[in-house]
Design a protein that fits this description.
This protein is an alpha/beta fold. The protein has helices spanning 22-36, 52-57, 77-88, 119-131, 149-155, 174-190; strands spanning 2-5, 10-15, 43-47, 92-99, 109-115, 135-140, 160-166. The chain has six helices and seven strands. Helix 1 links the parallel strand 2 (10-15) and strand 3. The radius of gyration is 15 Å and the shape is globular.
């Protein structure tokens, strides 16, 4: 985990929960370079590669475990991230993924839940509007995705969203990488952590 900045708000950004979703992991590496040259108003905790072994092998699962269905299971990697988010007293968490053809959601968008952390909807709508896409909304966290990092963080009372860009499995797309990077920047802009304006480069 990499820490940049000081003070509030405090947010965490995660990529690589699924090792074969390459574009967001590379995008977060680009974001790190960007942030080192930017004015930061708050604290950012970054985990660009949640499962380095799965990323190196370009596998969705870590061993036999889908970590985005295991955040409620003690000592799983995503459970450790969840507990760290609680310990740090975060303002929010963003989990960054890519989605492939014939998968859920199969299109670019931002997942959010109304309950119990309704601000996740506001964050999702902000990012989606800036990106020109639609939010993917559920009434209550944990239904239907029990164990998803976003859901378990929301259930812990910390607003969280899952940002998805469109890219084939195990394939790096420059366009998807740039779209993911833009989602990350807008996530930070929502909280005022980044002040400057930017567009799809």
């Amino acid at each position: 985990m990499i820490k940049i900045g000081t003070g509030s708000p405090k947010v965490m950004m995660v990529a690589g929960v699924h090792g074969n979703e390459l574009s967001p992991q590379i995008a977060m590496s680009y974001l790190l370079d960007y942030l080192l040259e930017s004015e930061i108003n708050g604290t950012i905790y970054m985990i660009p590669f949640a499962t380095p072994k799965a990323s190196m092998e370009s596998k969705r699962r870590f061993g036999q475990i889908d970590l985005n269905r295991a955040s409620h299971k003690e000592n799983s990697i995503t459970n450790i991230i969840l507990n760290k988010a609680i310990e740090l007293g975060l303002s929010a968490l963003g989990d960054f993924h890519s989605t492939a053809p014939n998968t859920n959601p199969g299109r670019e968008g931002v997942f959010a839940s109304k309950e119990p952390s309704s601000e996740s909807l506001t964050i999702a709508d902000f990012i989606s509007e800036k990106m020109g896409t639609k939010s993917i909304k559920y009434n209550k966290a944990g239904i239907p995705f029990k164990g998803a990092l976003e859901d378990e963080v929301n259930l812990a009372g910390i607003p969280a969203v899952t940002c998805e860009v469109f890219a084939p499995v195990s394939y790096f797309s420059q366009k998807a990488c740039q779209r993911s990077l833009l989602q990350m920047k807008y996530f930070l802009q929502y909280f005022g952590i980044l002040k400057e304006t930017f567009n799809d480069e």
